[in-house]
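Give me the fold.
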Amino acid sequence: MDKLLIRGGRRLQGEVTISGAKNAALPDLCATLLSPEPVTLANVPQLKDVATTLKLLANMGVQAEAHADDPSTITLDATRVHNPEAPYELVKTMRASILVLGPLLARFGRARVSLPGGCAIGSRPVDQHIKGLQAMGAQITVEHGYIEAVVPGGADGQPGRLKGARITTDMVTVTGTENLMMAATLAEGETILENAAQEPEIVDLANLLIAMGARIEGQGTHRIRIQGVDRLHGLTPAQAHQIIPDRIETGTFLCAVGAAGGEVTLRRTDADQLEAVIEKLREAGVQIEVGEGWIRVASSGRPKAVGFRTKEHPGFPTDMQAQFMALNAIAEGTAAIHETIFENRFMHVNELIRLGAKIEVDGHSAIVTGVPRLSGATVMATDLRASASLVIAGLVAEGETLVDRIYHLDRGYDRMEAKLRAIGADIERVKEGA
């Protein structure tokens, strides 16, 4: 099992190119199931979760080919899907696997999808997905760890077609919005999604679907309206859909520079997607300039402690909570952090404490009192974003920090240690027993 060895205390200087967004790439990949023609996606990040999704789609019969001149451009052909099933073996590490459910039901009228796994940051029930698909006419049972779904009403006992419906989810759910939006593109009639998620990744998926021939309005708002069509077409390499930049990778590097000090320019990114985080970093005294496709971040001296409350977009993203906590750990002053999205998202706290951080947790709140310095130690990553917080802490800690179980990190960050090394960090990947 790989680990990261970090020797802290080095300022960061140079440029980083931000990769495509994990949370946009995964639903975009699943959306290719909706068309019987090849679909080309560009700016696909090189991540463990992307590789898992491609393996899952291949198991169904989807052919995927990375372009020789640009491995981040992939053409997927779902013409011959023969197995509308997502088995446990392929989805146990990744909750986003539930995103095949809507497309399979929409195009084939049936699906068998294992209940997903992923990071242990709290319950993310799929009941809202099921509720919405049932409103569109699907018959769904959950047994033996699998979601068994079929759309009745077809001729000669064959599956039928989903019907448009007005769906109001009990909570704002990103993957639920994505799944139901994909399902609605091929449903009969109009579907209205109320209480829809507004994340940039929702807009990205909608833009891909529209390019494939879907009729969607309202993406990026609480109400999305979809008029079903009979079929979606493909996208040639010349028409390739460009996946948006990863706003969480962007925010992670902003926090890394804010904590470690230095001056770094981030390329191929979008500051508009990360306004809440940039505002808090500026409150902390970090200097940030933005332009078309770039962000420049500079920091010298200790930042100021800044409190925040996680919220659905456009609020402060829960996926940035752990990284900002690492910055607060060495900031001047005390800050309160309130986590409102996931109930188990403070598991990185004990590992930060091992590095010398002063943090007290009370339910869904954490009080962080900044200390002048952290000291290196061996720590263990518990989930994807916790991994990133430990890397940031290691960058500022005195001595050596060894981050174990970084397979979590590889799920969502495209060659993070290589990008950090290129801007001056002393960081290397080491193998078990090395």
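Residues 118-124 have pLDDT under 50 and may be disordered.
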